[in-house]
TrEMBL record:
One of its GO terms (molecular function) is RNA binding. Seems to be required for maximal rate of protein biosynthesis. Enhances ribosome dissociation into subunits and stabilizes the binding of the initiator Met-tRNA(I) to 40 S ribosomal subunits. PROSITE patterns: IF1A, S1_IF1_TYPE. This is Translation initiation factor 1A. Belongs to the eIF-1A family. It comes from the Archaea.
């Protein structure tokens, strides 16, 4: 596979979204995430994602922090392993 094939354009965060890495599965459709803005948050997996997309520890996700409660967020997107590796290579995600 050539470089141009392996480099696909990925969904990037909107102005109200931030990259995060799942650190814990909490149950009840909630996960603990470490966001790239340095905060730990409890993120909710919305109903539209629950049965279709399986989220596991160490997955890279996009979360949308709540305006009124900063320690909570909603999961907006999950990247698969290849996409997460590409984000790390491009420097969007820093390992902590």
């Amino acid at each position: 596979m050539s470089d141009s094939e392996s480099h696909k354009s990925l969904r990037m965060p909107d102005e109200d979204e931030v990259f995060a890495v799942v650190t814990n599965m909490l149950g009840a459709n909630r996960v603990r995430v470490r966001c790239m803005d340095g905060k730990e948050r409890t993120a909710r997996i919305p109903g539209r994602m629950q049965k279709r997309i399986w989220i596991r520890e160490d997955d890279v996700v996009l979360v949308e922090p709540w305006d009124w409660q900063d320690e909570k967020a909603d999961v907006a997107w999950r990247y698969d392993k290849q996409d997460a590796d590409q984000l790390r290579r491009e420097g969007h995600i820093q390992e902590m």
